[in-house]
Amino acid sequence: MPDRSDTPLAPVLLGNEPGSFPHSVLAERHPAIIRQVRESFPYAPQQHRALDALLASCTKGVIEPLPADAYDGEHWASWGADACTGRTWFDVPWLWSESYFYRQLLEAVGYFTPGPWQGIDPFRPSKLAELDSPETDEELAALDALADRPADEQDRALLHGSLWGNRADLGFRMSAAQGEAATSKTPPLVADDSETLWSLLPHSGSATLCLIADNAGRELVPDLLLIARLLTQGRVGRALLHVKPYPYYVSDATHADVLDALRRLTKAPGAAATYGRVLWSAMTDGRLTVRAHPFAAAPLSYADMPGDLREELAAATLTLVKGDLNYRRLVGDRLWPPTTPFTAVTAHFPGPVAALRTLKSDVITGLDARTEAALVAAEGQKWRTGGTHALIQVRT
Ligand SMILES: O=P(O)(O)OC[C@H]1O[C@](O)(CO)[C@@H](O)[C@@H]1O
């Protein structure tokens, strides 16, 4: 396995280059998210004023500190708040800037403040709309036909459901052109280590799986279906589902979203309800546990994870890391040459790890030179951010 020390570090992504993808997220997507949040609930005047102040700060101003009594002030201090406060949102690492934006957005709407708005998720209306959509009905109805297919076909379908479910990201849809398909000259999957993934989960009933979730709604539902399948097939004996401790990156899953998705499954007709019951009983007998570690919303790479989380992930047979943002945190939010070995940049991870991700940012590793050349020839650099390509990468 190539060692991390053989791999020169690539530049950290910043949002200060006009025309770049990170710059567009800070300059266009964040103001659009503030607009969306204003419309999500009848917020009071002081909440609108706080949103005005955040809009001014994140577009034209500088990073402001959290309130002195913030419950997580110490975490943010240890995650680099002192070095970033007072600088523009465009000049600090992009990952830091984005993560702090969501923290300050929740501050503005009173999510952490004792009172009637405490704990009200500003993104819940859009998450629920997605869960109730006809597309979700269709996806769940497809499970009925799948039940008659051979076992390996069912495994593969549910793995791919979880993978492509990552396209269903509400923040991404606010700025990406939808409906584009990968060109016929380039494969939708730019890397596929799924055989290695399956070899790590034989039907022994003894494996522990950690799944680090990404989005709620139409991504979390297939993630839960995959977990149910792995449990019923004995590929996994125990699963830990890691979600965010608070609403984040628009549609990231929280514990409340897990419960909404689970209720959606158990109330559905046909095979979907069977999957729902498997998950319900696995939660009640302890085979499926939901975790919401504070580090899940940290603006840092997984290389910097704290000891308790490292220990838990080290004990897993496999950790499945879902989505684009988690990929950025797994390999480091850097402009790596695309052929940088995935095994080298994930050498820090405490155990076997698999990334399931659709490509929605500039960060990419582990491509072979021929695939990279074909992608560039067909699409320039659009394949990196368009969400039309995906990957399954594994480090054993
Ligand atoms: O939901 P995901 O797959 O983590 O994607 C998050 C999206 O937000 C971004 O962080 C940009 O804001 C991109 O990495 C990606 O397009």
How is the topology of this model organized?
Elements: H1 21-40, H2 45-60, H3 73-78, H4 81-84, H5 94-108, H6 124-131, H7 134-146, H8 151-165, H9 170-173, E1 189-192, H10 194-199, E2 208-212, H11 220-232, E3 238-242, H12 255-267, H13 271-284, E4 288-291, H14 307-314, E5 318-322, H15 324-331, H16 342-345, E6 353-358, H17 369-379, E7 390-395
Bound molecules: 6-O-phosphono-beta-D-fructofuranose (F6P).
User: How many helix segments?
Assistant: 17
Q: Would you count the extended β strands for me?
A: 7
Number of domains: 2
- CATH class assignment of the largest domain: Alpha Beta
Integer average pLDDT: 94
Family: Belongs to the damage-control phosphatase family. Sugar phosphate phosphatase III subfamily.
GO molecular function: metal ion binding; phosphatase activity
Cofactor: Mn(2+)
InterPro entries: ARMT-1-like_metal-bd_sf (IPR036075), ARMT1 (IPR039763), ARMT1-like_metal-bd (IPR002791)
